[in-house]
Amino acid sequence: MNTPPLKNTTKSYGMVAIALHWLAAVWIISLFVLGLYMVDLGYYDDLYKTGPYWHKAMGVLLALVMIGRFIWRGINPKPEIAGSAPVKKAAEVVHTLLYVWVGAVITSGYLISTADGRAIDVFGWFEIPATLTSIVNQEDIAGVIHLYLAVGLISMAGLHALAAIKHQFFDRDGTLVKMLKVTRNV
Ligand code: HEM
After folding, report:
1. Is residue 103, in this structure, part of any structural domain at all?
2. How many domains does the chain have?
3. What range defines the domain where residue 104 resides?
């Protein structure tokens, strides 16, 4: 029995890229929902402390997943994007922007959490130390930026998902299936 390919080819995504794509997508959406939920919690709510703790620790781990994913992307062939030259170019720009945007959301979150000089504890496994703490009102400024960037990221990811669905069901070019199913020998 042939095992499904781990690596991408110029026509299809391999198992690793597909797994990392959906892991990151679920992770980002979960962090977004938890982040919005946390904002309204009062001191006596159960999640008042654990919510932000999980949000920060999972945000740091997401950064590691995204770095791993970016490296994996760099050492793999890029499957060809379906469509005309401008569509391909637009998709490439959006894919790159999604990486940059995730990085910006995580960085702004880091600047909120470490504004008071305290490190971020990641489930007791390791800590991410504070570095930049000298901006006046850092926590508030980074907080506003973090919220707007997060809303922007989810909106961009939503448009990206709609584009994939349009390609799959209107243009019938197999774009969504390419990110769902590992294809052998292509
Ligand atoms: C926060 C959520 C998401 C992020 C950050 C994201 C990011 C990305 C990135 C960076 C790529 C380029 C390939 C790579 O580097 O792995 C990609 C490809 C793709 N994504 Fe997403 N994605 C998200 C959610 C979704 C959703 C919800 C769908 C579909 C409903 C989707 C469908 C696809 C498809 C079909 C491709 C392959 C496009 C092609 O190569 O033609 N993505 N995504």
Report:
1. yes
2. 1
3. 15-178
pLDDT above 80: residue 4: no
Q: How many DSSP H helices and E strands does the chain contain?
A: 5, 2
Instruction: Give the pair of three-digit tokens for residue 77.
Output: 């062939």
Decide if 83 is inside a domain.
yes
Stated pTM of the model: 0.95
Is the shortest distance between the CB of 175 and ligand 1 below 6 Å?
yes
Each residue of 149-159: pLDDT tens digit? 999 999 999 99
Q: Which atom of ligand 1 is nearest to the CA of 101?
A: 5
Asked if residue 51 has pLDDT above 60, the reply is yes
Does the beta carbon of 99 lie inside 6 Å of ligand 1?
yes
Give me the phi and psi of 115, to 5 degrees please. Answer: -60, -30
Query: Which ligand 1 atom is at minimum distance from the Cα of 99?
Result: 10
Provide the CA 3 distance to its chain's centre, in angstroms: 28
